[in-house]
Specification:
The chain folds into two domains: 130 residues, Leucine Dehydrogenase, chain A, domain 1 (Rossmann fold, 3-Layer(aba) Sandwich); 136 residues, Rossmann fold (3-Layer(aba) Sandwich), CATH 3.40.50. The strands form two sheets. Strands 2-1-3-5-6-4 form a six-stranded mixed sheet, sandwiched between helices. The protein has a six-stranded parallel sheet with strand order 9-8-7-10-11-12, with helices on both faces. By secondary structure, it is α/β, with parallel strands linked by helices. The chain is globular, with a radius of gyration of 18 Å. The relative contact order is 0.13. The structure holds NADPH dihydro-nicotinamide-adenine-dinucleotide phosphate. NADPH dihydro-nicotinamide-adenine-dinucleotide phosphate (NDP) binds next to helix 6 and helix 9.
Length: 273
């Protein structure tokens, strides 16, 4: 019998997840279906329970429900979802709802595996303190960067994030003007600025020679952040498409016990851009 999976979010119509998981299933010979479900904040929990009632085996959770899934839905939480306080992968098993988070692992696999850029020993700047930044911060710190700085417009949010991770990597925090005079090997834009074609107020000369500029946003070509990085001499530019496919592969591995080959799927999606 075909096992059922789905992604739930709002908006969801343009999600690439059904296509990505269909490709993974074809490639690995797994008999699954994967659909997209639109929910509201009010209907989110009941929509997930309905899907479980219909025999669903697992779900991906996307914007804006990752925190809700961690807080109100999961009966068991994987350690990396507990540190992130956000769930992007649900597993329905033996009457339990297990919550996991594959965003950080997906980002690392893209940066280190696909882009060949080890994080250990690098000076890292993480822009943003929202859901995406929370999801990727524990994974970045686990690689022992030389330094990790969080920058956010609302510095109180960045400080809250810092306090949670004092014991596991001790990140530092600043506002945008405070970045002046600092340089980084890896600058990750985990803000939603690129959605609105806006450049966060980064000072000039923040990229070291050989730096990687990584925007979690995808499907928008060169975002204002990536254009800025290019003009400032960053050696490598990347959008978040690779992370999207890698986090999906991590979910697929959890659900099916098989790791799909992500490269042909990334190439296929790039061909459609
Ligand atoms: P949130 O709404 O939770 O957080 C938004 C963050 O962006 C806040 O820190 C906010 O700062 C900051 N921000 C927004 N606009 C600006 C601006 N103009 N200048 C500076 N900072 C700004 O969003 P998420 O964390 O959920 O998502 C962030 C991005 O990551 C989205 O573009 C999303 O598509 C992408 N993403 C990509 C994934 C992938 O697989 N590639 C996975 C997950 C997310 P403040 O607190 O000061 O308001």
């Amino acid at each position: 019998m075909t096992d059922r999976y789905s992604v739930i979010g709002n908006p969801i119509a343009h999600s690439k997840s059904p296509l990505i998981h269909a490709e993974f299933a074809r490639q690995t010979g797994q008999d699954i279906s994967y659909t997209a479900i639109l929910a509201t904040r009010e209907s989110f929990v009941s929509a997930v329970r309905d899907f479980i009632g219909q025999g669903g085996k697992g779900m991906n959770v996307t914007v804006p429900f990752k925190e809700q899934a961690w807080k109100y839905l999961a009966t068991d939480i994987a350690p990396r979802a507990a540190t992130a306080r956000a769930v992007n992968t649900l597993i329905f098993k033996d009457g339990k709802i297990i919550g996991d988070n594959t965003d950080g692992a997906g980002l690392l696999r893209d940066i280190e595996g696909n882009l060949g850029f080890p994080v250990a020993g690098r000076r890292v700047l993480l822009m943003g303190a929202g859901g995406a930044a929370c999801g990727v911060l524990p994974a970045l710190l686990s690689r022992n960067p030389a330094a990790l700085t969080i920058v956010n417009r609302n510095i109180d949010k960045a400080r809250e994030l810092q306090e949670r991770f004092t014991a596991s990597g001790n990140p530092s925090v600043t506002d945008y003007p405070g970045l002046s005079g600092s340089q980084f090997d890896l600058v990750i834009n985990a803000t939603s600025s690129s959605m609105n074609d806006v450049l966060p107020p980064l000072p000039k000369a923040i990229f070291t020679a050989g730096a990687l500029a990584y925007d979690l946003m995808y499907g928008k070509g060169l975002t204002p952040f990536l254009k800025f990085a290019q003009s400032q001499g960053a050696a490598k530019l990347a959008d978040g498409l690779g992370m999207l496919v890698e986090q999906a592969a991590e979910s697929f591995l959890i659900w099916r016990g098989v790791r799909p080959d992500t490269r042909p799927v990334i190439a296929m999606l790039r061909g459609k851009e």
